[in-house]
Task: structure prediction
Amino acid sequence: MRYRLFGRTGLRVSELLLGTMTLREKESARRVLDVYADAGGNFLDTASAYGESEEVLGAVMRRRDRFVVATKYSLSRDADDPNAGGNHRKNLVLSLERSLRRLRTDYVDVLWVHLWDRHTPAEETMRALDDVVRAGKVLYVGVSDAPAWFVARANTLAEWRGWTPFAGLQVPYSLLQRDVERELLPMARALGMSVAAWGPLAAGKLSG
Result:
């Protein structure tokens, strides 16, 4: 397994990131994780919205400090609560606390903003992210599925105000979906952000 630097952080992550959205059964999850780790993989990706994924990962993960554990927040935790979703501080704090309990850890290496929230200003999100980094509950931050202008604005604000910038960008990227090459990839290169592709097999269309 080869490793890459995660943005401008100095953190080394394996080229292949293990997505855990479909992990449901502990024994099969343990086998998958063992095979991945034996091959040199160290980057695990989950989310608060991935059902039981965080709990299963927390139950089977051995040698916690060997892994770079990433989770996401943004999507709603409770359909009846209008503040249970979004990128504002309240949802960030509550989602992160729940994720830490499920993962059985006191910190996550990377917290991703799961998607762009047009109702929450970049200042609110970046300040709240910086606060959880300073509290030691998160080491690095990233963003998924957001327009280039928003990511550039957010990182510019972080630079001006001394906050933690986005170090990574998650995007849907495959032979069938290459629109990210127009703006998002050039932006990430210019800002020194790592790019993690999700859906590289286009939901099975490219795997036969």
The chain is about 35% helix and 20% strand. The beta strands are 3-5, 12-14, 18-19, 43-45, 68-73, 108-113, 138-144, 166-172, 194-198. The first helix runs from residue 26 to 38. The CA atoms of residues 176 and 202 lie 7 Å apart.
